[in-house]
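Following up on my earlier thread - several people asked me to post the actual chain instead of describing it. Fair enough. Here it is, all 146 residues.
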Amino acid sequence: MALGIRYRVRMVQTRITYEGGLRCRAVHAPSDSTLVTDAPTDNHGKGESFSPTDLLGVSLGSCLLTILGMVAERRGWDVAGASVTVEKIMQSEPVRKIARLAVEVRVPGAFDEGARATLERAAATCPVAATLGGALEIDTRWRWGA
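Reply from S.P.:
Thanks for posting it. Predicted structure:
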């Protein structure tokens, strides 16, 4: 245990192969599901699939919805149809990287202020957001009853 940090060992392997033409294929070992990435058109790619940086937005959005769903299920709340739209804003100087993720969360149905606060607090505990921890700006807006 380093510096008092407790680690949980959960080894999930993903095999990633470069196929040429700025395209990669990732295989999730436990399920054999595949995902293809392509470099974006503004960075010499074809833009025919998710770019590696797009996947960061996918990770954040799907993590947020998963946490939202976990809490909703425990409380007996129906959040089916909830969705997240993530807009990725890149910067090119001093290095090319994601500068900001604009996240819009839409949750259908009628929820009182207490339920809304509970779900928003829970979603804020998403491990992906915690991992990003200030490395980039994440602007989250909620749309209720949408």
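Residues 10-50 form one domain. That should answer part of your original question.
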